[in-house]
Amino acid sequence: MASTGGVPLAGQARGGTPRAALAELLAGNRRFVSGQPVHGHDVSAAAATASGDQQPYAVVLGCIDSRVPLEAIFDQTFGAICVIRTGGHVLDQAVLGSIEYVVEVLGVPLVMVLGHERCGAVRATVDALRADRRPPGTLAHLVDRIAPAVVEAGVDDPQVVPVAVRRHVARTVTELRNHPRLAPPVAAGRVAVAGALYDLATGEVALLDPPQR
After folding, report:
1. What would the pLDDT profile of 29-47 be if each residue is shown by its tens digit?
2. How would DSSP label each residue in 101-132?
3. What distance in Å separates the CA atoms of residue 205 and residue 131, rounded to the nearest whole number?
4. Which CATH superfamily is domain 3-209 in?
5. Torsion angle defined by CA atoms of residues 180, 12, 15 and 69, in that order, rounded to the nearest 10 degrees
6. What are the residue ranges spanned by the domains of the chain?
7. pTM recorded for the entire structure
8. Rounded to 10 degrees, what is the CA torsion of 64, 194, 17, 177?
9. CA–CA separation, 26 and 41 (whole Å)
């Protein structure tokens, strides 16, 4: 993967390894945490990637929480990463299809699942299970997908939310690694799926479930 001083160059990532892609993401987060980001959302950066095909080096699946802007916390410029955001980083057919596309068509070697502290979707699931009341509308889909992690963490445990957040990340990572379209490239070492947690207070990303290779 091409880089300058550890800074990823958008449009030059095809053929990169999962290990290099993960290193680039975490290096960007270190720049963000240290207050020394190098990428801004400047129109000139957008124009520079407008011609030719996109060549991102990673796809990050995160939560819709407004406090977790993924390009910013990884200090990434236009064209560097694909971003997918759902409540509680819940998987559905559209999300899975999008990940399949970036892996199979764009050649992205890294899929990162990023949870975060004090996740509202996890909190809502805990509340729903404690009240034994399924929420109305499509919100119930989020609760249904997050509920197994909450049950594993212990619905009535005082620390259920932070524990369930981590368990939900791990479960999502496992589901992606075992997905029929992703399992073969993961087993071959061409693609890695990693799980991580974002700290709202410090801005730091910590790996929870690193790639198996």
Report:
1. 999 999 888 887 666 666 6
2. HHHHTS---EEEEEEETT-HHHHHHHHHHHHT
3. 33
4. Carbonic anhydrase (3.40.1050.10)
5. -30
6. 3-209
7. 0.89
8. -100
9. 19
